Amino acid sequence: MNHVDLHMHSTYSSDGSYTPSELMLLCADAGLTTVSLTDHNSARGVKEAGIKAGELGIHFIPGIELDCICQGISVHLLGYGIQTENERLYQAEKEVLEKERNASAERMRLVRKTGIIFDDEFVLKAAWNGVVTGEMIGEAALKEKGNRQHPLMKELYPGGARSDNPFVNFYWDVCSPGKPAYVPVGYMSFEQAHRLIKELGGVSVIAHPGQNIGKNADLIRYMKEQGVWGLEVYSSYHTLDQVQYYSQLAAQFGLQKTAGSDFHGKTKPSVKLGIICGLE
């Protein structure tokens, strides 16, 4: 059984379901012994999670997941071993939150432009700090019978090819880069994100490369040359073929291999703590 999970989200992420303490209790129940809390662009939950993990006898590594752009591609950069009480970090979190808020109304407008129906009130009630995510819109849209035959929606309903994680798959199919309801948020550059993690005393790891980088080995090589420490080879999103590919790439480039489920809770119901492809 795998006892390590270095990628998970609490309610300090706009799409997380559990408080940091609740999350650590779930980690204990799952038999995990080494974990890291890696909320989106925020480390505010790290202290609470670390205290609860200590009470439960779990080895805890302070972490974060920064949204950034590298050579025009959306990249998620994990930072481990960071100092969490830092003014530069607070400022970065504030800047991203403001940009996400500003993008929310446009995201809703573009989704509606595709002909997808959803209830504004449901979405706005679910909004976290004024941020409406693609996953929230997806949850609202899946409640509407009128969307069942929509070409962007029909595979998300039970029995469909994309029904395993319907909310997050809605994001990938409708709101992610290159899709009809994509709204550029203006995230920091990869270079800025990596520099921030270094300033916080941490190391950088490229998250779930199969999701957004694919087999762009040149991009991974570039990030390694800039000082990235590791590659999340083992991920809930990766197939065994992808695990093998990224494992070979990590060895070739001298990157450390890490493992993370990217657990969120209801947003990604098929993702379980500690259940990671290649480590079962």
In a few lines, what is going on in this structure?
The chain is an alpha/beta fold.
Number of helical regions: 10
The count of β-strands is 8
Cα gyration radius (Å): 18 Å
CATH fold title of the largest domain: TIM Barrel
Number of domains: 2
CATH H-level homologous superfamily name of the largest domain: Metal-dependent hydrolases
Distance between the amino and carboxyl termini: 6 Å
Please give a structural write-up:
- This protein has 280 residues and is an alpha/beta fold.
- The chain folds into 2 domains: 4-94 and 187-260, TIM Barrel; 105-175, no CATH class.
- The chain is built from 10 helices and 8 strands.
- Strands 1, 2, 3, 4, 5, 6, 7 and 8 form an 8-stranded mixed sheet that branches.
- A hairpin with a 2-residue loop joins strand 3 and strand 4.
- Helix 1 (20-29) packs parallel to helix 2 (46-56), helix 4 crosses helix 5 (134-141) and helix 5 crosses helix 6 (166-175).
- The longest helix is centred in the middle third of the chain and has 27 residues, at 87-113.
- The model has no long low-confidence stretch (mean pLDDT 95).
What characteristics describe this protein?
280 residues; alpha/beta; TIM Barrel; 2 domains; 8-stranded mixed sheet; globular
Helices and strands, with pairings:
Blueprint: E1 4-5, H1 20-29, E2 34-37, H2 46-56, E3 59-70, E4 73-80, H3 87-113, H4 120-126, H5 134-141, H6 166-175, E5 188-189, H7 190-199, E6 203-206, H8 209-212, H9 217-225, E7 230-235, H10 240-253, E8 256-260
Parallel strand pairs: 1-2, 2-3, 3-5, 6-7, 7-8
Antiparallel strand pairs: 3-4, 4-6
